[in-house]
Design a protein that fits this description.
Length: about 375
């Protein structure tokens, strides 16, 4: 997608794509749009009618947005998340122990994908999260984020949506009588005025999908960037404190969520242009990380950058609630992988996932040489 962002940028920081649609790959303009309350997200209600999953407060403007976001925030605050460190490390260690002692394995299917899924399902307290059905529903749902791909996909999505709804309704019921130490138990215990029963299923779905479909790509994209640059891989292997920099640089250089959008709630003057109420702006997050206005040598992956002002987790009201968790997961996953297999190499071409919204790998064959 990166050459496309360059083309967009060549047309100016903000340009019109069609009558009511604008595009921007400028870090400055996208940052402004995402932080400006005169832009909202409400147009996504129309997308929903076309069959996309409902994603709770990600698709709401204040005041509904505020109520639900405030409710989940404490669970995912940096402090709360730091306490998951032990659980995450345990999950990662278990996955690494299962990797064959020597030879080839798929880094995505064998490591990057199951790890965040295990974490989010554990946090939500979902029993049987390892079942093949549950994994399939989650994957079908997640793949719908970039839009429906075929009629077959639409049918699968409908079925997955029905099943997940059932699972979450049953689970909410169960946690009302048998609360545990999980997010759903907290939600059902809250007074009805805060979070009603109709909020619960979309909220669970949002948290589940956010955990299923994003962090896997941050882990995969970071490992790929390092393995493609043996010098960078070696430096991180020798100095694990650089893992943090590698994850941050990947969020700039190759972020899992490539774009989002906002709708103008009133006429807005932006970059010298007039955006009319109702117009939509596509903010190309993946392009903003390579904006030469704010980053030197933008197409170079560089562990020594100090630039941390990327928009990979968006900005403003909808700034990713899971950012501290995602960063912690990716840091632990990459650190433990390199510590265990410092001699890992790429072994054959990987495959990118379909769609342009989520950027990541469907597979990455790697080889372990044990010394
Ligand atoms: C929102 C990216 C992981 C929960 C967002 C948005 C982005 C994003 C770009 C905002 C979209 C917009 O402004 O329109 C990412 C990336 C992740 C990640 C790149 C991993 C590397 C997670 C995880 C969770 C999560 C693990 C689990 C809790 C959420 C929620 C929102 C959100 C609840 C909605 C926030 C709101 O609308 O106020 N994420 N996310 N994310 N993310 Fe994440």
């Amino acid at each position: 997608p990166y050459p496309i962002y360059e083309e967009v940028r060549a047309r100016g920081p903000l340009s019109r794509s069609t009558a009511k649609l604008w595009v921007s790959a400028s870090h400055d303009i996208c940052g402004q749009v995402l932080r400006d309350r005169r832009f909202g997200v409400q147009m996504r209600a129309e997308d929903q009618r076309s069959g996309s999953p409902q994603l709770s407060f990600l698709e709401m403007d204040p005041p509904e947005h505020t109520r639900l976001r405030r409710f989940v925030m404490p669970t995912f605050s940096p402090k709360a998340v730091a306490s998951f460190d032990g659980q995450i490390t345990e999950i990662v260690t278990g996955l690494l122990d299962a990797v064959p002692a020597e030879g080839r394995f798929d880094l995505v299917a064998g490591y990057a994908a199951p790890m965040p899924i295990a974490v989010i399902t554990r946090l939500l307290g979902i029993p049987d999260a390892n079942s093949a059905e549950f994994q399939r529903y989650g994957a079908t749902f997640g793949s719908a984020l970039g839009g429906l791909q075929s009629l077959k996909h639409a049918r699968e999505l409908f079925e997955a949506q029905r099943q997940l709804r059932r699972i979450f309704i049953d689970l909410c019921e169960l946690r009302r009588t048998e609360p545990g130490d999980d997010v759903i138990s907290r939600m059902v215990a809250a007074p009805d005025t805060q979070v009603g029963p109709d909020d619960l299923v979309p909220l669970c779905t949002l948290l589940l999908i956010a955990g299923f479909e994003t962090t896997v790509n941050l882990i995969g994209n970071t490992v790929l960037a390092l393995l493609e640059r043996p010098e960078a891989w070696r430096r991180v292997a020798e100095d694990p404190s650089l893992v943090d920099a590698a994850v941050e640089e990947t969020l700039r250089f190759d972020p899992p969520v490539q774009r989002t959008a906002r709708v103008a709630r009133e006429d807005v003057e932006l970059g010298g242009l007039r955006v009319a109420a109702g117009d939509v702006i596509i903010t190309m997050i993946g392009g903003t990380g390579r904006d030469p206005q704010v980053v030197d040598r933008p197409d170079e992956f560089d562990l020594d950058r100090s630039h941390r002002d990327h928009l990979a987790f968006s900005a403003g009201l909808h700034y990713c609630v899971g950012a501290p968790l995602a960063k912690l997961e990716a840091t632990i996953a990459v650190r433990e992988l390199i510590a265990r297999f410092p001699d890992l190499t790429i072994d054959g071409p990987g495959r990118r996932r379909a769609g342009s919204l989520i950027r990541g790998l469907a597979s990455l064959p790697v080889r372990i040489r044990r010394s």
